[in-house]
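Example 5.3 — Transcription factor bHLH168
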Amino acid sequence: MPRGNNLPKLDRNALERNRRMYMKDLFSKLAYLIPIQPGPRSSLHALLNQAIAHVKELQERIEMLKQRRQLLEGTHHDAAGISGSMSPVVSLRDLGFILELCLITGLNENFTLHQVINVLLEEAAEVVDVSYSTVGHRIFYTIYFRAVCSRIGIETSRLHERLKELIF
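Solution (predicted structure tokens):
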């Protein structure tokens, strides 16, 4: 009879062990899907916080891409002469150690890319990558940059204001 009493406990232990292995497998898959962040990844709590932050960044990226698509669709209409002129767009995004600056302007603007990069350098930024494309009557600039000194960082609100003053 003592064996019969232990059987349900053994079943519960096996079920719990299987549940823990299943959860460990799920967390492992989650860790594989999110970008690697510096620091220890030992804590499941930290992993979940990183996953939440990553999902929020992806949602922001989706919104920015939707806006960009709307602008491109508007640009198509501009080329046909259907809609009026549009003012430049400046957006800054913090991607962790790198910041992304997106500028959308017309072809006949009163500033040069060199002036924008000078503003970044004056704000203690190091330019990592620059790309641009022209669609219709619009130029799309994407500039990736980081702080020269990571401990000090970059004051993005001040940078945003300086860029708006330059562009508008």
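Remark. The longest strand covers residues 125-135.
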